[in-house]
Amino acid sequence: MELKEAIRNRRSIGKVKMDSVDKALIEEILEAGTWAPNHCHTEPWRFWVMTGEGRGLLGKGYAEVAASEADPALTEEELAALKGAQMKKAFRAPVVIAVAVTPSAQAVVPEIEEYAAAHSAVQNMLLTAHALGLGAIWRTGAPTYHAKMREVFGLGAKEELVGFVYLGYPDMAPPSKAARTPFAQKTLWVSE
User: Is 0.85 surpassed by the pTM of this model?
Assistant: First the structure.
């Protein structure tokens, strides 16, 4: 697949089959992530590949975040139902890769650049998944950044999750081609 084609045609695929994904394909996706640009070669990313019951790690995170924010008036049964519903979110794909940023302690590397590198790693992973014929979606949202989720993944003081890449074989047609604002409308050429 040509690079420009992959960039223009990749779409978030939120519905995938539960067929297992070959480990070699997952490793190819992870390898692509590690080739993202990063200041001073800090390689500030970390990955958790969750398959099978291992996805329960993420499910536990979703459940604990929901429980911590639940109405205290909920009965035990209602709270259990809420946690169960949140747990299921982790099982929407056969493979989920959590991606975190571990900012470097090097003073020369601004922390924001470490986040940019981790986000770039996710983009490389999404493009590679697309090129391999897999469906993928980068999921984030408030629970991703919640202290309970950080705790479940055992993150250090400065580490943060940047999202979850859900992977599998597509079980939906890709969304129609997306329109983009022409770059000329968002570009200022400076030559003097």
Answer: yes
